């Protein structure tokens, strides 16, 4: 059965528990997600559900999607596929999944998303290098990477060498997060800890247990 939904990051906040401890949380808008396509073993050789999230403006709807959404009242803006072990017989395209259909308070989840892009960064910020010596005339080596390879042998820089470059904007999976609270009325969920991405970024939440 389905064990995940599409969500949007709203903000970070904090929650006080009954014992008075403070818990940092991330507030997410989870669902509702509509089934836009059902894939099964007979046709695609695997079972999965394609879910849609949000609303797409009519002017942004391509002709190729008109037929895809012909049995759906809303026109979702985000489409993601979720593998399932078994597809229920009564499941049809157009069915909506709410946050309470999948998650409950106390569930362990993993969140997948794209991290914030930081642009070009040096080795100190990107990889945590401590830099070169700051004495004995080394005035220009404070944030330098140091040696990046030999001369005659190997005569090149090894692939994968930690150097300056584009930082962030990568697909990140954060595991072991806990559902602290669920607001069914507003389709919101509070998860303990931080998740990748900026405010308004799209995330995928998978229930682990």
Share of β-strand residues = 35-45%
- C-alpha geometry: extended
Biggest beta sheet summary: 6 strands, antiparallel, barrel
**Secondary-structure element order, N to C:** EEEHEHEEHEEHEEEE
C-alpha-based Rg, rounded? 23 Å
Question: Could you name the CATH topology of the largest domain?
Answer: Elongation Factor Tu (Ef-tu), domain 3
Describe the overall structure.
The protein starts with a strand and ends with a strand. The model has no long low-confidence stretch (mean pLDDT 89). 18% of the residues are buried. The strands form three sheets. Strands 1-2-11-10-7-12 form a six-stranded antiparallel beta barrel. A four-stranded antiparallel sheet has the order 5-4-3-6. It has a two-stranded antiparallel ribbon with strand order 8-9. It is mainly beta. The chain folds into two domains: 1-30 and 101-132 and 161-208, Translation factors (Elongation Factor Tu (Ef-tu), domain 3), CATH 2.40.30; 32-97, 2-Layer Sandwich (Double Stranded RNA Binding Domain), CATH 3.30.160.810. Strand 10 (171-183) and strand 11 form a beta hairpin. Helix content is 9%, strand content 40%. The chain has helices at residues 41-44, 63-68, 99-102, 123-127, and strands spanning 4-16, 22-30, 33-39, 48-53, 78-83, 96-97, 108-114, 117-121, 165-168, 171-183, 188-192, 202-207. It is extended. It contains four helices and twelve strands; from the N terminus they run E-E-E-H-E-H-E-E-H-E-E-H-E-E-E-E. Part of the 50S ribosomal subunit. Forms a cluster with proteins L14 and L19. Residues 129-165 are annotated as: Disordered.
């Amino acid at each position: 059965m389905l064990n995940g939904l599409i969500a949007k990051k709203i903000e970070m906040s904090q929650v006080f528990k009954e014992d008075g401890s403070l818990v940092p949380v991330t507030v997410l808008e989870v669902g509702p997600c509509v089934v836009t396509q059902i894939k099964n073993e007979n046709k695609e050789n695997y079972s999965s559900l394609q879910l849609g999230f949000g609303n797409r403006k009519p002017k942004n709807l391509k002709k190729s999607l008109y037929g895809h959404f012909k049995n759906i009242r809303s026109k979702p803006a985000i489409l993601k596929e979720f593998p399932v072990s078994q597809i229920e017989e009564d499941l049809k395209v157009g069915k909506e999944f709410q946050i309470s259909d999948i998650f409950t308070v106390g569930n362990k989840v993993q969140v997948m998303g794209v991290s914030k892009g930081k642009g070009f960064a040096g080795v100190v910020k990107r990889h945590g290098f401590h830099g070169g010596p700051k004495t004995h005339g080394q005035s220009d080596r404070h944030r330098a990477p140091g040696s990046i390879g030999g001369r005659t042998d190997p005569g090149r820089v090894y692939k994968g060498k930690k150097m300056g470059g584009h930082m962030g904007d990568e697909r990140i999976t954060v595991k072991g997060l806990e559902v602290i609270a669920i607001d069914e009325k507003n389709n919101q969920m509070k998860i303990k800890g931080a998740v990748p991405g900026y405010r308004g970024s799209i995330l995928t939440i998978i229930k682990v247990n």
